[in-house]
Amino acid sequence: MEAGEDFGPWLARQLKLTGKTQAELAEELNLTRAAVSAWITGRSVPRPTVMGEIADALGTDVGTVHTRTTDTQVGLPITWYHRPGYPDGGRDGGNAAAFAFDADVQVLARETCQNSLDERLEENGRPVRVRYTLHELTGEVLDAFRKAILWDELHPHYEAVSQEASQQKVGRVVDAGVRDMFEKGRLVLLRIDDYNASGLTGDDYDDGKFAAVVRRQLESLKSGRGAGGSYGLGKATLWATSALGMVLINSTLSVPHEGRTERRVIGRLELPWRSVDGTPYAGPAWLGRPDPDTPRAEVVRSWWADEETVKSLLLTRDSDEPGTSFLIVGAHDVASLDQSTPDRDVDDEDGSDDDGTRDIRAMHRRLVDALGRNFWAAMTGGGSRLPLLETSVRTLRNNKVVVEEEKVDPTVDQPSRTRALRAFYEGTTVDRLTESGQVALRTVPLRLPLSGGQRGTLGTHPAVLLVTEAEDADGVPNQVHSLRGNRMTIKKSGVAALPLGVNAFQAVLLTGHAAGESAPFAEEAEEFLRAAEPPEHDRWGQTEELTLRWSHTAHHRISRLTTEVNAAVKELVARPKRSTGQGGTKLRKALTVPRKTTAAPRRGSGGTALPELDGLDAEIGADGEWRITAEVKLPRADELPTMTPVVLLDVRSGSRPRLDWAELVAVDGCEVEDGVLYFTPRARRATFRGATDVASHPVRTSLTRLVLELRAGKGE
C-alpha cells in the first residue's frame, strides 16, 4: 500500500485547492485557528474523530484524509491554460528551440537518452534504464485517449492554427497531424520512460529541474559532472517530434516535493500564435490544476494524479523507482522518408497510403539503430566498471504487442568497439597488435589551455586511444569514435592518409572521466571539451563558449589532439599482424593478390613507356566484393596515355572471367571517367580504389584469386 503524504503539507494544499483559509476551516470545525496551524506546521495531527469532520469540510471521503495519496477532487478541476497574447501585439510562429533539430526519432533518441544519462542516480551504482514505447491508437482506444486529454477544450485552438496553416511552418505540421488523426483514424504515441534517474524535482516556478524542462527555454540544470547537455535545447526534440506539439509528463521524484514523490503530472502544448473567438493566445499551453495563488487562478501547475487518471493518460509507470515518463502525442518521423526501406514489413491496417512518417515498424528499427550507434559505450561494462545505461524499444497497437520489446545489445551493433572498451576496463590491452582480437592502447596528450585568454598550458590530460581489428557488423571501418564522461559517442572521424596494406580497424578515444577517474586533469578536460560541443553534441571544435571562456585559438588544442590520435593510429595499424583466425595459411594464400611484377616496362605502339602497376592491396568486403587499392608508377612524359583497370579471376586453364566494377574512384594523381584512368600531367605516381560488382562473380569470392591488369585505352 502506498505511503501517504505528511498531513500538514497535504492539508495546506487542499485548503488552497478548495479556496479555504485556515481560519475558515477552524470555524467549520469549531476549533481555534492555532489548532489548524499546528496541523499545517506538523507540530500535531488531528484526532481520528476529527478526520471525518475535516473530510466533510473538504468535500471528500474520510479515507482520502486518512491515506493522503491523492488530492481531493473538490475545487479547481484539471484544465488547459493557454498563455495570453502579448500586450504589445508580438507574435511567435512556434518555439524557436524546436527548429534546432529535425523531426527525427534518431535525433530524439540521442538527445533524450543523453538527458537520462545525465540524470542517472549514481549513489547506487546501477545503470539508468530507458525504454522507448511506440503505441498506435485507433477506434475506441483513440476516442478514450482524446477524452482523457480534454480534446474538446483543445479543438478550437487546433482549428484556429489550421486556418492560418499556410502562413506558418509549425501550423502546416500541426494541420497535417490533426488531419492524419481524423482522416486515417489513428494516432501514434512515443513514450520515453527512464528509471533510476532523478525525476523532475523542484518547484513549479522556482529554479529546479521541473521548471527548467516544463516552464523554461534554453536552461540546463544537469546533475552529473560529465553531463552531455549544456544548452537546454535537447528537451525541444520532444515537442519537435510531435505533429500536434503536445507532450504529457509523469514524474516520480528522487527528492520529495510537497511531501510526495509519485505521479507528478503535467502536460505542455507548443502551438503558434492564434486567435480563438477574438482572444489572442501567445503559443504554449499547459495541462494541470489551476494554481489558486495566481491571479484569478488561471495559471495551471502540476498535480499529484490518482492512478486512474494516470492510466487514462497512458502514463502508468512500471514501478515507484525515480524517473520520468514523457509521452509524445502525434509522433512522426519526417527524416525516415530519406531512408530506403525496400524490405518494409507493413500490415494492411498500417495503411498502404501512409507517407512513411508514422510507420511504427520503421520507427522501431530506427530507434534501435540510433541507440546502439550512439550509446554502445554507455551500455558496455567490464572489470569493476558497470554499464551506465540499459535501453530497449517496444511497439504496440491498442495495447497489444506489434513488435516485442527489444533490448539493445552493444556487442551486436558494435562488436569491435565494445571489445576494445571491455579490454581497457579489464586491463587486457597490449602495446602492439600481433594477433587477431587484440586491443592496443596508446595515450595521446590533450594540452589544456589556460582560461581567460592567458597564454600557456594548464596541464596535459592523457586521453586513451584503443585500436582493434574491425568486424563486419561495425559498419564503416577505419573510424575513430571519441567520447567523454557520459560515454555517449561525440565525434566520429576517419584517419586520413592511411598507408596501403593496413588491416581494417576500429578505434576508440576516451577523454575526460571516460579515460579514468584518476586520469590527470580529467575534470578540466570534461569542462573544456563540453564547451567545444555544439547543441547537437556531435563534434569538437570552435564554439562561442570556447572563445569566451578560453580564447579564439583554443580549438587548436583539439586539432592537435586529432593529429596526435591519427599519428598513433597509423603507427599501430601499419605493422602487419599475424592472424589466428579460421582458415590459417591456406585461406591467407587464397586471398593473396599478385603484386609488382619483374617484367620489363611495357611500351605502346609508338615506343612510349606505359604506366604500370607498382603496388596492389585487396581484401574481401562485407558483401563479398573484392575491394582493391592500387598504385601506378607513371613514366616521365609530357603526355600520358589513358589506361583501363580490368579485374579478372585467376583460373588454371581457359580464359580468365572478367568482373564488373561496382565502384572505381581516383585517390591521387589521376581521374576516373567511364572506367578509364586519366593521369595528371607530370605526376610520377597515381592511386585509385575500386570494388567489384558481386553480381558479376561466377563463384563465391572466398574461393577465388584475383588478377588486376592495366590495359591501354578503353581496355577492350
Description:
It is a single chain. The radius of gyration is 32 Å and the shape is elongated. With 716 residues, the protein is of the alpha+beta class. The longest helix has 19 residues, at 555-573. The strands form five sheets. Strands 1, 2, 3, 4, 5, 6, 7, 8, 9, 10, 11 and 12 form a twelve-stranded mixed β-sheet that branches. Helix content is 26%, strand content 26%. It contains 19 helices and 25 strands.
Q: Helical proportion? A: 25-40%
Number of helices: 19
Radius of gyration: 32 Å
Shape: elongated
Note poorly predicted spans: 223-232, 340-353, 576-600
What is the average per-residue confidence, as pLDDT, rounded to a whole number? 84
Distance between the termini: 84 Å
Structural class: alpha+beta
Major β-sheet annotation:
12 strands, mixed
Q: How many strand segments?
A: 25
SSE map:
Elements: H1 7-18, H2 22-29, H3 33-41, H4 48-58, H5 62-67, E1 79-84, H6 105-118, E2 128-138, H7 139-148, H8 151-163, H9 169-183, E3 186-195, H10 209-214, H11 236-240, E4 242-252, E5 264-270, E6 274-276, E7 279-290, E8 300-301, E9 303-304, H12 307-312, E10 323-331, H13 360-375, E11 389-397, E12 400-407, H14 410-413, H15 415-426, E13 439-449, E14 457-469, E15 479-483, E16 489-494, E17 505-510, H16 522-531, H17 544-549, H18 555-573, H19 584-590, E18 612-620, E19 626-633, E20 643-649, E21 661-668, E22 670-673, E23 676-679, E24 685-692, E25 706-712
Parallel strand pairs: 2-11, 15-17
Antiparallel strand pairs: 1-7, 2-3, 3-10, 4-5, 4-10, 5-7, 5-9, 6-7, 7-8, 11-12, 13-14, 14-17, 15-16, 18-19, 19-24, 20-25, 21-24, 22-23
